[in-house]
Write a structure and sequence with these properties.
The protein is an alpha/beta fold. The protein has one domain. 33% of the residues lie in helices and 23% in strands. Strand 2, helix 3 and strand 3 form a beta-alpha-beta unit. It is elongated and about 40 Å long. The relative contact order is 0.22.
Length: 88
């Protein structure tokens, strides 16, 4: 990847609590493992991004996720809002 111009890796992270994550994203890696992988990629010289997505109203607590990820030393952190219910 380092040989590719402007290569980057983004990983989605949505939950602070892995018990809640398991209810929505069964059989996926813990948030901490995802961030650790991004740290390794960054250390290898690859641009990294943690994407807080989807943001689920009343479940996703964005502020602590942003603080946690900002302390992780990633290149960028972004958040996206997706509605999980159809419009009424």
């Amino acid at each position: 990847m380092k040989k590719m111009d402007n290569a980057s890796v983004s990983v989605s992270v949505t939950f602070n609590d892995n018990r809640v994550r398991e209810q929505f994203e069964a059989n996926t890696k813990d948030t901490e493992i995802r961030i650790a992988a991004l740290r390794l990629l960054k250390k290898a010289g690859i641009k990294t991004n943690a994407l807080i997505c989807p943001v689920i109203p009343f479940i996703t607590d964005v502020k602590p996720l942003m603080v946690y990820k900002s302390k992780s030393g990633l290149h960028t952190i972004s958040a996206a809002k997706e509605m999980l219910l159809p419009p009424l």
